[in-house]
Predict the structure.
Amino acid sequence: MTLVFASNNAHKLEEVRAMMPVSVRVLSLKDIRFEQDIDETGTTLEENSLIKAQAVWEFISHQKSEISNQMDGVFADDTGLEIDALDGQPGVYTARWHLERRKDEGGRTKVMGEREIFAANRAKALHELEGKTHRGAQFRTVITLIKRPTTNDQQPSVIQVEGVVRGRIAEEEYGSGGFGYDPVFIPEGYDKTFGELPAEVKNSISHRAKALEELVKVINKTYDQI
């Protein structure tokens, strides 16, 4: 079985491939020579995950190559931090939360590197929760799988799964591991942030790991029927 993961992120690919059954071959966007920019215009994690999966599925469907003929499906993920006291913000805007507030009169945003953007995002999270005692939050990952139909007269199947890890926002940054909001997020059952916990611990309890576990269940169930 061959599936395309709609990402070129080396860390994500390694994690995904490690969790997949040995019978599943996972290809990246680079492997199928997909070089298009995908506009994530959705207002929910579910919508953006679907948008990415559909874009790659359409690309594959119009290719006439040995690789495209071998494809059994495409899956894509989208992840957000949802803070209880902020009504679920930043949610779908997690990666660019700070920049949502930094547009000039022409609608342009300041050009910043990824490390600088996430440092600003963390600072914004801490600022928004300053003085608040309720600091509950969760990371949520949604994965969309588009599965090739088993006969020519069927439409592709679309299946969505999710993984959630509950926790709270720390009052300041701790640790330098991980990326993004990891230094300010303390998962339930732990007294250290994702930025302090060893990578193997974080990966075993993370939202993405939980979503991947659900995806594997779907794959094992649905593809056994082919």
About this structure: The chain has a mean pLDDT of 88.
